[in-house]
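[Automated response] Your request has been received and processed.

Submitted sequence:
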Amino acid sequence: MRLLIVDGEKGISEFLAHSLAGVGYQVECLTTGEEALARLATDPFDLLILELALPDIDGLRLLEKIRNRKGDIPVIVLSGRATVEERVRGLEMGADDYMVKPFALIELQARIKAVLRRAMPSQDRLQVADLTLDCVRRRVSRGNRQIDLAPKEFDILEYLMRNAGQNLSRTQIVQHVWERDYDGLTNIVDVYIRHLRSKVDDAHAIRLIQTVRGVGYTIQPREAVQSARFGA
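Generated structure:
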């Protein structure tokens, strides 16, 4: 998941970026509203963290400009403005959440996850190549073959398919499926992926669940490599 932090205080934004990168997010920082508008016009981000005190424009004015451009990016506002009126105004201007400084980093991480979950498209049926996942009935099939999955296997596969083509880190998978922020479970992701591959890919020439070296996993079609030819 790609996050953009816009904060006039470079030290604070870099601290937040370092902390959030440590739990699996890709984070970029900007210090002005104009930079943010230009960046959002050309690059896709999954979430914007916006400090209202910017050197060139009030943060709520920036938020208004983003929404007027039909920007549907989820936005979490950070601000020292703590009155009920200010918080209500921020939400009415289009913020998805509003956090008052000072705040705990663990709370920000929880708010980010909650906002991203709400923003995730609520499709009832997902498909990648000939692999189909029914989110309502919790059924999976590939071609004409039904696949029985354990609950966590299903949850991981659903997360991969909702983000098909994106590289997802082990930490991101842990955060989404187990809803925890520490790395103690990242090794178990590899175990579940092996189980998924045995059920989803082993009987098929085209492999769907791919390893992204140094990152984690993604799901997308790729021709199977013949092990005899390459010695795998």
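Summary generated for your ticket: Confidence is low (pLDDT under 50) at residues 224-232. Residues 105-119 form the longest helix (15 residues).
If you did not submit this request, please reply to this message.
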